[in-house]
From TrEMBL:
Ranges where the CN hydrolase domain occurs: 26-275
SUPFAM superfamilies referenced in this protein's UniProt entry, alphabetically: Carbon-nitrogen hydrolase
Biological-process GO terms, alphabetical: asparagine metabolic process; glutamine metabolic process; oxaloacetate metabolic process
Protein name: CN hydrolase domain-containing protein
GO MF annotation terms: omega-amidase activity
Amino acid sequence: MASTYKPEQARVPPAVQLPVPPVTKFKIALCQLSVTDDKERNIVHARRAIEEAAEKGAQLVLLPEIWNSPYSNDCLPVYAEDIDAGGDASPSTAMLSEAARSLQITIVGGSIPERSGDRLYNTCCVFGKDGKLKAKHRKIHLFDIDIPGKITFVESKTLTAGDNHTIVDTDVGRIGIGICHDIEFQELAMVYAARGAHLLCYPGAFNMTTGPLHWELLQRSRAADNQLYVATCSPARDAGAGYIAWGHSTLVGPFGEVLATTEHEETIIIAEIDYSQIELRRTNLPLQNQRRGDLYQLVDLQRLNS
């Protein structure tokens, strides 16, 4: 009877086998940083937080969304950097590269505004222990919201949406990258899971309206749906800012359990990831064998067409 459900056909192309990670257990740091309008200060401040995280044993450091600039459509073009040019054209990523190399850690560098030609992107860079850029994720789903009397923000006024999934093999496992609003779209997380991700990282800056309602809910949903780890990192809350972040950076385990979290103040969360829990939970609750490929499919168009 079970064979008629065709679970192997529920993912097109078929889901890849979960790769054996380079490490089973390691410490992750979520650096919930205060952000000011002083870009140079923000870069130095982030560097110090990364150093502190490494001193506490973190092998993977995650930074917040837009950590080098205030989060506003007016500021994003002013603070934007040419990441591909590097060097003086991108002091934020130059710092991340140097920190990863000197501290021998993997850094998922939150996100910064990126200038590429005449376009702006909200971009996350991943650096390996050698300091080399391993991946660059441009936010796929732009945050446009209008709730009268609550919040209005139209990211698409300034930014261009990215066009690619970003999944990267690192010294601490296979990581799928999303930025903030990307977490709202379960299809992206499902694609990453089907590509063998151990961990999803979402630098984000949910606000005082969607934060209390959706932030933890979405993280736990993406983790439980796909039976993998989810890590998020927000800026610390600044009540005087034009856009007020919710905070509450969090690590969620593969059963949807909150493993570590915080409130809204600036802090560094150090938590342990144990990848053996993924296999355990997938054995406890074998969702991959229970999918109804006879009724529905998730189609990964990029894999299918490559």
